[in-house]
Amino acid sequence: MPPEFLNKIVRRLKEIWQTADEVARTKAVDRIEDELEELEYIFAVLTQGAFIGMPAPPVQISMDLLPEMEKELVLLLDRVETANEPLSRLFSVFDIS
Question: Does 48 have pLDDT greater than 90?
Answer without folding.
Answer: no
